[in-house]
Write a structure and sequence with these properties.
Largest sheet: 6 strands, parallel
Bound molecules: 5'-O-[(L-methionyl)-sulphamoyl]adenosine
Structural class: alpha/beta
Number of helices: 20
């Protein structure tokens, strides 16, 4: 029996529909699963949805649904998304599943019986948005994560004795240098640990939508105690799968996974996970993706226009796994064209076409040595995969592809094909064999990242079965059988024209956002708006002096995420200093030179110590980013709007 390997993604909150950030983690987990399977492991991949808590209760209410109905709907969105991407998920664990309730209650009792849980009263500042108490915050303080105001809450809670686990956790980190990777996250977690651990409140009486705590009173489990245990619930019915071999997570939830979670398990006398790997953040055009910036990218439009493998390749090649990275549509299409269409796709199709043209589709025999450093490339790829260094692994394969391309050009098979001397016929055979063998080996090595495309190339090579079923251990030069009949080459990656493709993706993106917003009750359809502000006379309107201005300089106000400090020329002898709350939507560079509408006679006011002499006019919807008013036609600076 092959050795088991159990890996997980985070279980995703259902207060947002799936976006490219969730897809990033889940694609990476799927690639690891495929890689481990090809290494010979019996792999189980679990993901799921995190469905309890106040935020979900509120979202359900906003859509006139019960929490059950609401979570069914959003959870299904995630399942659908993973199906469309053909991600090889074995377990999808929902926290609202009765099986999960049992596991959480069981684990709680184990911790309680061992004396690691006790009741106490708690007063603290709570952020309902992040579902976290903000330690050391005073009433009125904002949440350090999301900036929203915190609420003061006092309640009778059950506490977990996290403080009792400092030494044990330190010992765990000491004994297992690879327990938490990459090193930057390990160092952060160790620093946190060494700073001392406070006990954790793990239940709430203020929330209804949650798992009941098996004690008298109306306690429900608080988000993290409930959520983390889902990793166990997912495999509780299968002997021998726990502990997890890998929890793959984003960097923002390291503390919960590397400190809280092992402590809960130690308290319950259960084995802790073997490894936690935290990847970085996916930014959109260098900016954090957020609802308020209105720049959330969804994976589905990309899949529809370019295919699942295009996105998988981009995310795993472009971004150093573990570090932050940027997504952009331009870079996505550029990578596709250069690496997939021109690189792998071109090598596969030209090789197979030549085999068809010169050898009737039959792989010729080669009598000469392999001209490439194949062993080195295979070893480099597999080592990189083992360390989750996807971009390095892919680079190594592309090194081999480039060597094969160069070799083909040097050998010039198109010239050899016209020759009749036996040594030149053999040279052509050798060239074709080597090119095809590189395609075969590349296809095996790339199967974890490009499963769909590699299967197609595999079939065109005339290889049996699926490439994902091949064992990496069998990768050796020369296994492509001479005499094998190949199939007709069909291009696997067609070059993509960037402009229409990006336009189409953006169009689909807008439609998808609208659909998801409706589903989640985030925004009502903006039809039938009733405007009930009191009417004003024209004399009132002319009191407002609106002018065309041009932005001469702009910079972020220090200590504020929202404010931009601008100098704006509105035709007076001196430019105006204007501080606007638009920095979350526009960078300083984007504002430079822009013509905007200014309220020129607004009484000056100080913002962060800077006197603002007017206001930039912008439109915004609830929860959306501001959009600045501007002009399509030329208009001189200082012109009045009336
Ligand atoms: N429900 C918790 C996790 C509980 S696990 C026991 C949660 N959910 S979440 O929906 O917010 O998902 C967070 C995870 O989604 C991140 O850890 C990461 O894996 C992925 N990502 C979400 N947005 C992301 C980016 N912009 N970039 C990269 N990954 C991101 O936290």
């Amino acid at each position: 029996m092959s050795e088991k390997y159990y890996l997980t993604t985070p279980i995703y909150y259902v207060n947002a529909a799936p976006h490219i950030g969730h897809t990033y983690t889940t694609i990476a987990a799927d690639a690891i699963k495929r890689y481990k399977t090809m290494q010979g492991f019996n792999v189980t991949l679990a993901t799921g949805t995190d469905e309890h808590g106040q935020k979900v209760e509120r979202s359900a209410k906003a859509t006139n649904k019960s929490p059950e109905e609401f979570t069914d709907l959003v959870s299904e969105e995630f399942r659908e998304q993973w199906k469309k991407f053909n991600l090889s998920i074995d377990r999808f664990q929902r926290t609202s599943d009765p099986k999960h309730r049992e596991t959480v209650q069981w684990l709680f009792k184990r911790c309680l019986d061992r004396g690691f849980i006790y009741p106490s009263s708690y007063t603290g500042q709570y952020c309902t948005s992040c579902e976290l108490y903000v330690t050391d915050a005073k009433p009125g303080d904002p949440c350090p994560d999301c900036g929203r105001p915190t609420e003061t809450v006092t309640e009778e809670n059950y506490f977990f004795k996290l403080s009792a686990f400092e030494d044990k956790l330190l010992a765990l980190f000491e004994a297992n240098p690879g327990f938490l990777e990459p090193a930057i996250r390990r160092n952060e977690a160790l620093a946190f640990l060494k700073g001392g651990l406070k006990d954790l409140s793990i239940t709430r009486t203020t929330i209804k939508w949650g798992i009941p705590v098996p004690v008298p009173g109306n306690h429900v489990f608080y988000v993290w105690f409930d959520a983390l245990i889902a990793y166990m619930t997912a495999v509780k019915d299968t002997e021998g799968l726990w502990p997890a071999d890998l929890h793959l997570i984003g960097k923002e939830i390291v503390r919960f996974h590397a400190i809280f979670w092992p402590a809960f398990l130690m308290a319950a006398d259960l084995p802790v996970p073997k490894k936690i790997f935290a990847h970085g953040w996916l930014l959109f055009e260098n900016d954090k993706m957020s609802k308020s910036r209105g720049n959330i990218v969804r994976a589905e439009p990309i899949r529809e226009v370019m295919g699942a493998d295009a996105l998988r390749y981009f995310l795993l090649r472009e971004i150093v796994f573990g570090s932050d990275g940027t997504f952009s549509f331009d870079a996505l299409v550029a990578r596709f064209n250069s690496d997939l269409a021109n690189g792998l796709g071109n090598l596969a199709s030209r090789t197979l076409s030549m085999i068809h043209q010169y050898r009737g589709g039959i792989v010729p025999a080669s009598t000469e040595e392999c001209p490439f450093e194949v062993r080195k490339a295979i070893a480099a790829t597999l080592t990189a995969y083992e360390n989750f260094e996807f971009s390095k692994a892919l680079e190594a394969v592309w090194g081999l592809i480039a060597a094969a391309d160069k070799f083909i050009v040097q050998q010039a098979p198109w010239t050899l094909a016209k020759k009749t001397e036996p040594e030149l016929i053999a040279k052509l055979d050798h060239t074709l064999y080597c090119a095809a063998e590189v395609v075969r080996i590349a296809t095996v090595l790339l199967a974890p990242v490009l499963p769909e495309s590699c299967d197609k190339i595999w079939a065109q090579l005339g290889m049996p079965g699926n490439v994902g079923g091949v064992h990496f251990g069998s990768l050796e030069w020369g296994q492509l059988a001479a005499g094998q009949l190949t199939n007709k080459p069909e291009p696997v990656f067609m070059r993509i024209d960037p402009v229409p493709a990006i336009e189409k993706m953006r169009e689909l993106e807008i439609a998808e956002t609208k659909r998801q917003n409706l589903l989640l009750g985030k925004l009502e359809e903006k039809t039938g708006i009733t405007i009930d502000t009191p009417t004003i006379a024209i004399d009132d309107f002319v009191k407002i002096d609106l002018r065309v201005g041009q932005v001469l300089s702009a910079e972020r106000v220090k200590g504020s995420d929202k404010l931009l400090h601008m100098k704006i020329d509105i035709g007076e002898s001196q430019p105006r200093t204007i501080v606007g709350g638009i920095a979350e939507a526009y960078t300083a560079e984007q504002m430079l030179g822009r013509k905007v509408v200014i309220v020129a006679n607004l009484a000056p006011r100080k913002l962060k110590g800077i006197e603002s002499q007017g206001m930039v006019v912008a439109a915004s919807v609830e929860g959306g980013k501001p959009v600045i008013a501007g002009f399509l036609e030329e208009i001189p600076i200082g012109a009045r709007l009336k």
